[in-house]
Structures are given as structure tokens and as C-alpha cells.
Amino acid sequence: MLTNRVLVLPALFICLAGAGAVVAQDEDASKAIKAEEFIKERPASAKRTPARYKPASKSTGNAATPPPGTTFAQMGVTFWRLRKSTVADKTKELIEDEEGTAVEWTPERIEEDTPLYPGQKVRLGIESLSRPGYLYVIDRAQYADGTLGEPLLIFPTLKTNDLNRVKAGRLIYIPSATGKFTITPSDSTKNHVGELVTIIVAAQPLMPSDQLASRAIRLRRQQVESWEKQWGATAARFDMDGGVGQAMTEKEQAVGSDKSQELTQDDPPPQTVYRLAIKPENPILLNVQLKFHR
């Protein structure tokens, strides 16, 4: 399971749904796509990032237009793994180890499929690239037999409820801008193989704030499954070329903790962009996975 001090998270599966058209540079799925196609809703800047994306696999859809009755929605997700800082790192975070000693750590980019070892520390960065709305993140444990654990709403909480308004350029870190999840597979009789997080971006709040608590709350399994059935869509995945291993920039670090700041078109784009064809009135619902190395 994922542990964040007092918070224990059994899983991660991300679900999202939204709007925004993406024009591919070429119908050839192997050709790179300029990052500006995905981050054009961010605030403009004098320069633009030279970053490019490629489909994660040959099977990834790269249609230039969505099917009739649907619209494209893009969600940016960056998986950060924390490592010991070096002298060259510009971004460092002090985190206490098991002995209570403060140690400097630096977040670096990894891909979604990267196997994570017990004890490793991770963080998620989420940016709604094509639609403003309200962000909700639901966590579930994933087991080898295909079953899922009970759903926990890990974001927002009463402590972060004023931060769940998202839009292009507004970066949200899960569990927080200074928090982290520690990979801790459960010792249950079932083989705990990963974390499934469901990320939802809705035009209107899914629940009143008085239903939230200071920590994660348990949701009804039937409710989450109903949302998935109504809003779920297959996501096409695009990974940024050369992004794996890059350390978090000072701007990315600042934006996560200061909601008055925003990422512009000159700042680093998300490591992975998920594109979904959804009905215009539906929330964004995207599924992503963190795998455990066993």
C-alpha cells in the first residue's frame, strides 16, 4: 500500500474526462507531436518549449478528430520518484528518514510503467490541459487476481478543498506539493501488485465540502463503479521524448505550493499526456496505474 505518514493508501487508478481538440502533426503514429499541441491552453509566453511527444505504443490511437458526438480531452500526469539529491540538483526537499535524520531528496520524472520497489517515494503531478473543473482523486489497491480494494477519496480533503479547482497551467501535486507516498505492499493473503488511482475532473463539484474530512474518506464501491460506467473512456497515451530522469525544475516546485503561479507554454510539459474522446457534458475520467516490483 502507499503510506503518507498517518494516511494509508491501498491503491492508485486514475480516471479523468474533458474537452479540447488535438491536431496530430502526421497520421503516422510513429511521428512526434509538438508539446504545444497539448499545452496550448496554458498562459502564453515569449518562448515555447521544444519538447515533443510520441505515442506510448503502436496501438495508441492518433486520430486527428474525435468520433461523432464526442470531443477530445487531455490530462497531463507526471509520475515523480524521489531520489537522494546531488550537488548539481537545483530542487531539493528535506525529508526525515526512519532514524529521524533530515535528508535532501530530489523528485525526478519516471514513466507510468516503471516498477516501484518497496520503500521508494513517489508523487503525482496532475494538470487538466483542456478543461477547467474540480479535481477528485480516488485510490484503490490492485491485486494479482484482478480485484480492487475499497475506494478512498484521497483528494480533496478539508485541508486541500480550496485547491481542487484545476485548469491548464495549474499544477496539483498528490498527496501534496511537499508530500510523498511510500511504496508499501500489503502483507495480506492477496498478492498486492500495484496502485490504481481514479482521477476525475468535473465541471461541477461531485459532493458538498461538508462531506469531506481532514483525511481520506471511504467511498461506496457502487458509486465509483457507476461513475466509471457512465464516464469511462479508452485513453491514448503520449510520453514526452527524453523526459525520464529529468529533475523537477524550480518553477514546477514553486507552482505546486503557490496557487497564484501558473505554468506557461515555456515551462516543462507533463511527462505523459492522456487523450480521451468523451461526450462534451461528461466529466474527464482517466485510468492510470503504478506497478510494484515484487
The tally of strands reads 18
Which residues form runs of ≥5 with pLDDT under 50? 5-30
| Inertia-based shape | globular
Largest β sheet strand count, sense and barrel closure: 12 strands, antiparallel
Taking all Cα atoms into account, the compactness measure Rg is 18 Å
**Would you list the SSEs in sequence order as H and E?**
EEEHEEEEEEEEEEEEHEHEE
Task: Please give the domain count.
Answer: 1
Arithmetic mean pLDDT: 88
Helical residues, percent: under 10%
Give the amount of beta strand, in percent: 35-45%
Assign the structural class, choosing from mainly alpha, mainly beta, alpha/beta, alpha+beta, or little secondary structure.
mainly beta
**Could you tell me how far the N terminus lies from the C terminus, measured between alpha carbons in angstroms?**
13 Å
The number of distinct helices, counting runs of at least 4 residues, comes to: 3
What can you see in these coordinates?
The protein is mainly β and 294 residues long. It is built from three helices and 18 strands. The chain has helices at residues 36-39, 221-231, 250-257; strands at 2-4, 7-9, 33-34, 52-55, 71-84, 93-96, 102-110, 121-128, 133-143, 152-155, 165-166, 172-174, 181-183, 192-202, 217-218, 235-240, 272-278, 284-291. Strands 1, 2, 3, 4, 5, 6, 7, 8, 12, 13, 16 and 17 form a twelve-stranded antiparallel sheet that branches. It starts with a strand and ends with a strand. Mean pLDDT is 88; it is low at 5-30.
